[in-house]
Amino acid sequence: MPKLAKLALEDGTVYTGRAFGAIGERTGEVVFNTSMTGYQEVLTDPSYRGQIVTMTYPLIGNYGIAREDNESQQPQVEGFVVREAVAVPSNYRAQQSLGDYLAEHGIPGIERIDTRALVRRLRVRGAMMGVLSSVDLDDESLVHKARTAPPIVGRDLVREVVPTGTRSWNEGFVSPLVSYLPTCPVTHHVVALDFGMKWNIARCLVQVGCKLTILPGTASASDVLAHQPDGIFLSNGPGDPEPLGYAIETIRQLVGKRPIFGICLGHQLIGLALGAKTFKLKFGHRGANQPVLNQQTGQVEITTQNHGFAVDAQTLPRYLEPTHLNLNDQTLEGMRHTQAPLFCVQYHPEASAGPHDSSYLFEQFRRLMG
């Protein structure tokens, strides 16, 4: 018989559905993603650490799980919420079903709930703490757990996903079907500070001719410069950027020493390091269909995004120039330093999964390194 599961929010709302994946209980910030595909990339993106993710597309799991599509070693989400989970996938590349994959890694899921109603509530009330459980089915107990759960704001979630040591990465695109960046000979050495970096970012950097050395995001400026890089990359990662004082100080010491490119959390940390402020978005930007205006070219790019915080454009120092703007809510999506070789974007130009309108930024970084 199908086993019941419940999702309780801190505002007292409780959704009852069917359990899939692992049997258990997880607490996290409940958010939603508007992508129609790419659920495996969502599950394995370290930026989702601490969050229970709801997919707005109603049918999830139809093409199963293929190990080559992972963005990290394992699923990073706290829980997974869908309208309907497909138990029998149809895809010659798949090695297992979505439910089996989640069960293998201890991630609980819930299906057969009204995800449209849930997403409308999150859009009106904002992202909320919640509990997903298939072991405790008492509404009052679950709501109490949601209300007493530690919030995302003020937590250092990077510590939970940061790698423990230094490693090299030399893999570019391996599939003949993936060709949105040209294959370039190795011309530059890049050190990447990994705060929870998606693997496809590393592939894109290698693809455009970078020898890549990956350091933990906790590394110091002297650790970075000891590798004598031609350029420095600052990765994406989970949660609130403000508690990451160690990373902010490292970036402050590196500005002007080498060309720097930042994505997502890296963008936010650059802002904080140079004197700007960040703030929490009401429900965040998560999906593969976010329109962004490139203010330098006048072109509109459709982008992949996953972030719950943003840099406040009104607090930028005079030497940071806005370059990209979100057309949905006018928040800052990119900026560059006018006096040092540095630029960054809030969205994900590696677009895994998602549109490839912004892949040119990796080639722009290569040119910036000379």
Task: Give an overview of the whole structure.
By secondary structure, the protein is α/β, with parallel strands linked by helices. The chain has 2 domains: 4-148, Glucose Oxidase, domain 1, CATH 3.50.30; 158-368, Rossmann fold (3-Layer(aba) Sandwich), CATH 3.40.50. The chain is 22% helix and 31% strand. The strands form 3 sheets. It has a 10-stranded mixed β-sheet, with helices on both faces. A 7-stranded mixed β-barrel has the order 1-2-8-6-4-3-9. Helix 1 links the parallel strand 3 and strand 4 (51-55). The protein is globular, with a radius of gyration of 20 Å. The mean pLDDT is 97.
> CATH-wise, what's the superfamily of the largest domain?
Class I glutamine amidotransferase (GATase) domain
Looking at the structure, the CATH topology of the largest domain is Rossmann fold
Roughly what percent helix?
10-25%
Number of strands: 19
Give the number of domains.
Answer: 2
CATH architecture of the largest domain: 3-Layer(aba) Sandwich
Instruction: Specify Rg, calculated over alpha carbons.
Output: 20 Å
Estimate what percentage of residues fall within beta strands. 25-35%
* Highest CATH level, the class of the largest domain: Alpha Beta
- Order of helix and strand elements from N to C terminus: EEEHEEEEHEHEHHEEHEHEHEHEEEEEH
Q: Output mean pLDDT.
A: 97
**Shape, per Cα inertia axes:** globular
